[in-house]
Design brief:
2 domains, about 20% strand, nine-stranded mixed beta sheet, 14 helices, single chain, binds iron/sulfur cluster, TIM Barrel
């Protein structure tokens, strides 16, 4: 199988209050140099793959912030069954959308996060709920029939009712895919300095609400934070969870290829100065098994039954309603997914 390709665009209009990704605002002067470096980094991979990849994901950062022609240029000669571009609703225009479509982008992942303007402000997002809706319709108008909306819950001050309102508005638009992530207060972000995490039971309740509500609307939970209409699961993300090969290009991008894990530097300056593969490791069999379990048990399909020993511990997990042995698979239930880390740890021991 061809590897998947991830292209990182680390530029944003402004830094969101909760964000600790490799992304920077106000770096327009280096955009040109960055895209040149990306193209150079892609060149050998293009030669190896003949430009064909299993899937492509242009993520960030905010790929929709930079001129769409730059995205088209980077995608020239690249082909894949699924080509996703991450877009911030505050940055889309019909002209950009047309260029993306012509460049082969066939899926948009829109960072909506919330349909509550107060919460969007708290998050430091550059768009309003109305703009998110407008961007969604603009994308449909431009011919995109595969759209994802990213949502967040457990936000400071967010009530259960406000979360239900966001879910309702998202589902009413009818995207093919919805991601729902719980906010993590990452150390060093402005938000972590003042916000208090929501209590676990409230976070779990919001998560359960999302799963039940979205199920009713025809979206199956196929991974801890991801829901899709039948056949609209994100092919690219499934590569990560199934531990397939992927190449990441750009600052801070990670790769897994032919048994090696490697990553570019997190620093934009170092990347622009030519540093590549600053982390590079050959994985042991034990590492591989650990990763397979950790990733596979995030998904509804779980892992092959043969990987899991049937013993007192796993039988207890089944009895407690955390996991299921079924035909040739072993997977976690909704309840099991709430404590996925602990279950995986117990299995590894
Ligand atoms: S738009 Fe995304 S990558 Fe950029 S600062 Fe906000 S959360 Fe981070």
């Amino acid at each position: 199988m061809k590897p998947a390709l991830y292209i990182h665009i680390p530029f944003c209009a402004q830094k969101c209050a909760y964000c600790d990704f490799a992304s920077w605002a106000g770096r327009e002067p280096v955009w040109e140099a960055y895209f040149h470096a990306l193209k150079e980094e892609m060149r050998p991979w293009m030669e190896i793959s003949g430009g064909k990849f299993y899937s492509v994901f242009v993520g960030g950062g905010t790929p929709s912030l930079v001129p769409a022609e730059r995205i088209a240029e980077i995608l020239r000669g690249v082909s894949a069954g699924e080509v996703t571009l991450e877009a911030n609703p505050g940055t889309l225009t019909p002209e950009k959308l047309e260029i993306y479509r012509q460049a082969g982008v066939n899926r948009l992942s829109m960072g909506v996060q919330s349909f509550d303007d107060g919460l969007l402000k708290t998050l430091g997002r550059i768009h309003t709920a109305r703009q998110a809706e407008e961007a969604f319709f603009m994308a449909r108008e431009a011919g995109f029939d595969n759209l994802n909306l990213d949502l967040m819950y457990a936000l400071p001050g967010q009530t259960q009712e406000a979360w239900e309102g966001t879910l309702e508005q998202a589902a009413a638009l009818g995207p093919e895919h919805i991601s729902a992530y719980s906010l993590i207060l990452e150390e060093g972000t402005p938000m972590a300095a003042w916000a208090t995490p929501q209590p676990d039971e409230d976070v779990n309740r919001m998560q359960r609400t999302a799963t039940a509500f979205l199920k009713e609307k025809g979206y199956a939970r196929y991974e801890i934070s991801n829901y899709a209409r039948p056949g609209r699961e994100c092919r690219h993300n499934l590569v990560y969870w199934r531990r397939g090969d992927y190449i990441g290009v750009g600052c801070a991008a990670h790769s897994l290829y032919q048994g090696r894990r490697f990553a570019n530097p997190d620093s934009l300056g170092a990347y622009l100065a030519g540093a590549r593969r600053t982390e590079d490791a050959i994985l042991t069999e034990e590492d591989v098994l650990e990763e397979r379990l950790m990733l596979g048990l995030r998904t509804a399909e779980g892992v092959p039954r043969g990987w899991i020993r049937e013993n007192a511990q796993t039988r207890r997990m089944v009895r407690e309603g955390l996991a299921v042995f079924e035909k040739d698979r072993f997977f976690l239930t909704e309840k099991g997914m709430e404590v996925q880390d602990a279950v995986v740890l117990a299995l590894l021991q």
